[in-house]
Design brief:
By secondary structure, this protein is mostly beta strands. The chain has 3 helices and 32 strands. Helix content is 6%, strand content 52%.
Length: 560
């Protein structure tokens, strides 16, 4: 028996798998109540109706409604937190067979995705908590309110004036631009096994201008990524904020995308607003999401001082492979976050220094409770502090950039295996344009982990497996990690055809990502994109674990 268990754990060392469940079950006492899988019988816009089968371990176990309760709803990635008003739990079925908990609410559920945490505290062997992550079907196609197009308007997206009044009026004009997109993706980016996906989306950006340099901005998208199945529809308000100026100060209040860093796409100081890495789009910037923030920037000649307050945190959304018997909980504590940045531009060298104190958008992995139903792994977002700097200059036809940040974490030392260690992350490189349009960008990156310990040396098999997965996720499997990124682009046919190859590879523990892409502009409004995402490497590497996310993509886009 011991040999079988040891062999199983050895084979699954480098991934979260069912071995964690069995090893944990052997080490912990069984619970006296088993929760089955939840069945939802309601849709968005209706009061919740759901059923959870239960099975007491002993026929004599007394289960009553007083033992059961719904505790604080959690949050799953960027999905809306559900307010479950008037929740009622009742028991249905025979006392010995076909027993189930009926969950209802008096208020309608407006969120398509929500989390339920069901607690039973009257079982003989202690407390049982089971978390369910739900996706409700949409009763009708959602209505688009005020949401946007792309992060930055492109030249083929022509601004349309919808409303314009006399200059003397307080409300001057509403600018609306966006795009309609149809795409094909050979697989999902969620590691869920789905393939051959047809995507349709509407992206909008609306700017209501007022006098005195004030404006209200809203941008976002409405999309369906599974051949227009109604239940697969989704929508996202990326930004919605008020901006205005007073003297030398600029203000922004609301949900906004804040991007820091001067390096090319690898930005150690970019810690404020998240990305959705599972979104089916050919453009990296479309994956950005906004966070609720108050931002003040004071300008003085060539200098700027920025202060930012964020009352909460939205995490990065990344792919997680579905493993039978493993269920995930995401814990995002309430925390006030602050960031400051001093920026100088306009001289021979542009540079900035920044500081951030808040929650880590990339989680640590903690081990939760284990029941017969499975093992709970917790995505824990801990507090970090980041001190960063960046600089950029131009020498002839060469553009040079450097960016670095040191991150302090809550890690307790070399023996703390499940919280990422403090680390230094730096990028340096440059680019040059040859002939008219051929641009070559080359960068070197380095990560150094403080108080490093090898997770492979951990003796406890369960702790070792989770520690390895956490180290792979946070790029801390080795004390030093370094590599290069390359991006080569060119234009042809009177600038109507643009090609790009972007790649990043790690030296040592080899793994890499390559994206070749072609974009053709049929006219000023319509363009087509064709490309590949290729992930390769061993399973215990960052890009290697994303191998199943490799895909072919094609998209037609009409901008207006």
């Amino acid at each position: 028996m011991l040999q079988m268990r040891t062999g199983t754990l050895y084979c699954m060392r480098l991934t979260i798998s069912s071995a964690i469940i069995f090893a944990s079950l052997f080490a912990q006492p069984a619970q006296a109540l088993i929760f089955g899988e939840i069945v939802v019988n309601s849709k968005v816009g209706e009061p919740l109706l759901a059923h959870v089968p239960i099975a007491p371990e002993s026929p004599n176990e007394k289960i009553t409604t007083t033992c059961l309760s719904i505790i604080g709803s959690g949050r799953v990635h960027d999905q809306q937190k559900a307010n479950l008003f008037g929740t009622k739990l009742t028991l249905e079925g025979d006392a010995n067979t076909d027993r189930q908990i009926r969950i209802t609410t008096t208020e309608r559920v407006t969120s398509r995705a929500l989390t339920l945490r069901l607690k039973a505290n009257c079982v003989s062997n202690g407390l049982v908590i089971r978390e369910f992550n739900l996706e409700l079907e949409t009763a009708a196609p959602p209505t688009l309110h005020m949401i946007e197009s792309v992060s930055t308007p492109e030249k083929n997206e022509v601004t349309t004036t919808v409303q314009k009044t006399d200059d003397g009026n307080f409300m001057q004009q509403l600018d609306l631009n966006g795009s309609v997109r149809a795409g094909y993706f050979s697989s999902s980016r969620k590691l869920d096994g789905k393939s051959n996906l047809g995507s349709g989306s509407l992206w909008l950006k609306a700017t209501q201008n007022f006098r005195n340099e004030a404006a209200l901005v809203a941008q976002g998208w409405l999309r369906n990524d599974e051949t227009f199945r109604t239940s697969a529809g989704s929508q996202k308000l990326q930004e919605g904020y008020l901006k205005f100026s007073a003297g030398n100060a600029d203000y922004r209040i609301g949900k906004q995308i804040i991007v820091w860093g001067r390096a090319d796409r690898l930005n150690p100081t970019d810690n404020l607003t998240p990305r959705n890495f599972t979104l089916l789009t050919p453009e990296d910037d479309d994956q950005r999401m906004g966070s609720l923030a108050a931002k003040l920037t004071y300008h003085s000649q060539e200098n700027a001082l920025t202060g930012i307050y964020l009352p909460g945190m939205d995490p990065n959304i990344f792919p997680v492979a579905v493993t039978p018997g493993i269920f995930f909980t995401e814990h995002i504590p309430h925390a006030n976050q602050i960031a400051v940045k001093f920026d100088q531009s306009g001289k021979d060298v542009d540079w900035s220094a920044s500081y951030f104190s808040g929650l880590d958008m990339n989680p640590d992995i903690a081990i939760g409770t284990t029941t017969l139903a499975g093992t709970n792994l917790i995505f824990e977002h801990n507090r970090i502090r980041v001190l960063g700097m960046d600089a950029a200059t131009v020498i002839g036809r060469y553009g040079l950039r450097a960016e670095a940040a040191y991150t302090w974490t809550r890690n307790g030392g070399s023996n703390d295996a499940l919280i990422k260690k403090p680390f230094l992350n730096m990028v340096m490189g440059g680019d040059r344009t040859f002939f008219d349009y051929l641009n070559i960008n080359l960068q070197y990156y380095l990560r150094h982990v403080t108080n490093y310990t090898d997770p492979l040396s951990i003796t406890d098999p369960v702790l070792r497996s989770v520690a390895i997965q956490g180290a792979v996720l946070s790029n801390q499997l080795n004390r030093f990690q370094h590599g290069v990124s390359v991006r080569v682009s060119n234009k042809w046919l009177n600038e109507t055809l643009e090609g790009e190859i972007a790649a990043i590879t790690s030296i040592g523990r080899s793994n890499y990502f390559i994206r070749p892409k072609l974009v053709y502009a049929f006219n000023d409004n319509i363009k087509g994109t064709l490309g590949l995402d290729i992930y390769r490497g061993e399973s215990n590497t960052f890009f290697g674990q994303l191998r199943k996310s490799s895909l072919l993509f094609a998209e037609m886009k009409y901008g207006f």
